[in-house]
Design brief:
- The structure is a single chain.
- The protein is an all-alpha fold.
- The protein has one domain (about 5-70).
- Helix content is about 75%, strand content about 0%.
- Helix 1 packs antiparallel against helix 2 (about 30-50) and helix 1 (about 5-25) packs across helix 3 (about 60-70).
- It is elongated, with a radius of gyration of 14 Å.
- The protein starts with a helix and ends with a helix.
Length: about 70
């Protein structure tokens, strides 16, 4: 998996994980599965940051999203 794909997947999984955590807290449940997905998302983002030759900035993330979506959409 290349660094750009890992970064995009990490951000998407992390966003859904935060929504799941808030949902579990509102329902007064322990967010165990959500905590594991946050760890997975964090691992993907750290992996992408460590293996990217250029690095990432907030301004480069939209371009990265578009490049990954164009690469995998038919």
């Amino acid at each position: 998996m290349d660094a750009d794909t890992a970064m995009v997947l990490g951000i998407i999984i992390g966003a859904f994980s935060l929504i799941s955590i808030f949902s579990a807290l509102v329902d007064r449940r322990v967010p165990r599965a959500s905590a594991l997905t946050v760890l997975l998302a964090t691992g993907l983002i750290v992996y992408a940051s460590a293996t990217s030759p250029v690095g990432y900035t907030a301004a480069s993330l939209p371009k990265t999203f578009v490049q990954v979506f164009v690469k995998y959409l038919p």
